[in-house]
Amino acid sequence: MRAVVVGAGLGGLLAACALAERGFRVRVHESLPYPGGRFTNLEFRGFQLSTGALHMIPHGRRGPLAEMLAELGAGVEIFRSEPQAVFRIGGRDYGVDEVYSAFSTGEKLRAMKLLAMMKLGRARAGEESYAEWLERHLRSELVMRLADAFTGWCLSLRAHQVPAAEVLAQVENLARLGETGVPDGGCRGVVDALVEVLESNGGELRVRSRVLGVSGTSWSFRVHTGEGAEEAEVVVCNAGLHRSAELAEGVLPPEYVRMLRGVESVPGVKISVACDEPVLGHSGVVFTPDAERVCGMNEVTNAVPELAPPGKHLLMAHAAPAGGDLRREAEIALRDLHRLIPDFRKRCRVLAVQTYRGEWPVNHAPSGTHIPPETPAGGLYLVGDGVKPRGWMETDGIAMGVREMLEHLSRALEESSV
Amino acid sequence: MIRVTERCVGCGACMPFCPKEAISVMGVAEIDAGRCTLCGRCASYCPNQAIEVER
Ligand SMILES: Cc1cc2nc3c(=O)[nH]c(=O)nc-3n(C[C@H](O)[C@H](O)[C@H](O)COP(=O)(O)OP(=O)(O)OC[C@H]3O[C@@H](n4cnc5c(N)ncnc54)[C@H](O)[C@@H]3O)c2cc1C
């Protein structure tokens, strides 16, 4: 059987490798000159910036992405961050278990109990947002700021923008898997390993090859590019929800196309900074609940020094915007950095300010959206960051979405005579 | 003529590929016309087809 994958982002590459391994004849079309989408390196003045991600895998060596990479035989080492995370409050860094000492005595016990419940998966929520849920359980300004920094870093959304049930499921997974990590070589290390696996299984990657449309019917598609049309039984769309809707409009029911078009992508701001010495000193996340826009920072060169020139360090900060003018949001985030990092002007140099929105966002769907990978057209699937199952964030969520897609495809092939 | 259209989101993916370092990004990409040689590399590296070059 033939499978065509539209887009060589992480979702597309994971799906392509798995399909090639299962015996499909696989071709991946990528419109850019390189694979990886928003998860690969951008070399600038000797620093490995990235097209999107902050060079981190949320669940590290123990999460669904690492598991899938191992299954596929994509050998990429992931370095565990130690500490995983700290909170920078009032100029001091508190470890995850120390953060309670920043609370007033009245709040301390309730906050500890609440977090313990969340970690054990005993907390329950209805339809409300995470902010509303917290408000109901423990009214505390500090808790709210910690929550905003956490969801802002992980999801590029503030606590009032995410369903509580989704965050609770994510916290449970984080507590159970208990680590975060940086891949060797940064984002690109993962992408290179996947491309190698794809090609060694007979799959083909075509860069500078834009898919213009998909026609046909279930299990019998025609994929159109500048080179002409090719036939495929299975089409996997990694182009984002809106672009996938546009490409496959002719093979999908109008109400489904409208649903995909109605999903709003999530914006974000990333600032990459060059430093002459380690400024954070570890490769874990520094959450920044005091800042106006910046939610957290990392310094991945403490785990993978090659991401910066010898002796230098790369610090990255992520900000969840509060408004639509991303230039203004970026200016506020830059101001934050001057306050968060002592002697910023002396020790740091801003390399790039990157903003993400629209069709090149932080996420194609806000966390908690849960669009399944299968579509009304048999054999046409969606993968990528618009398609994450409940409780899974970032690239680990993408891997879980690809896993669901593969399971659905196996069932569909078993049940039918396709 | 080189033009950055409203499709630009400011992701900066074009910036490192400019051989003249003529691109700066802050919310949106700006191309320094004085340095730009209209080589069109930036356009081919833009994920949003936001850069138009007319030679
Ligand atoms: C600022 C920022 C920080 C982040 N930090 C992290 C992090 O630290 N850790 C983490 O795990 N995640 C992080 N993420 C999220 C992560 O980067 C994305 O979720 C992930 O890279 C998205 O992968 P994808 O497969 O969905 O799509 P993409 O990476 O967008 O890939 C889609 C590909 O399809 C191609 N394409 C589109 N249309 C066509 C077409 N018609 N024909 C051919 N090709 C086409 C595109 O060019 C692109 O290469 C971050 C994102 C951002 C923006």
Q: Could you give a short description of this structure?
A:
The complex is a heterodimer of chains A (418) and B (55). Chain A has 418 residues and is of the alpha/beta class.
Q: What would you say this structure looks like, in words?
A:
Chain A is of the alpha/beta class and 418 residues long. Chain A is 34% helix and 22% strand. Chain A contains 12 helices and 19 strands. In chain A, helix 2 (64-72) packs across helix 12 (394-415) and helix 8 (241-247) runs antiparallel to helix 9. Chain A starts with a strand and ends with a helix. The mean pLDDT of chain A is 96. Chain B has a single domain (2-53), classed as Alpha-Beta Plaits (2-Layer Sandwich). Chain B is built from 1 helix and 4 strands, in the order E-E-E-H-E. In chain B, the strands form 2 sheets. A two-stranded antiparallel ribbon of chain B has the order 1-4. In chain B, strands 2-3 form a two-stranded antiparallel ribbon. The radius of gyration of chain B is 10 Å and the shape is globular. The termini of chain B are close together. The model of chain B has no long low-confidence stretch (mean pLDDT 96). Classes of the chains: A alpha/beta (418), B mainly beta (55). The A-B interface holds A 31-33, 37, 42-44, 49, 51-52, 208, 325-328, 330, 352-361 and B 7, 9-13, 15-16, 25-28, 44-45, 47-48. Bound molecules: flavin-adenine dinucleotide. Flavin-adenine dinucleotide binds at residues 6-12, 29-32, 37-39, 52-54, 56-58, 210-211, 238-239, 243, 247, 268, 270, 318, 356, 362-363, 384-385, 394-395, 398 of chain A.
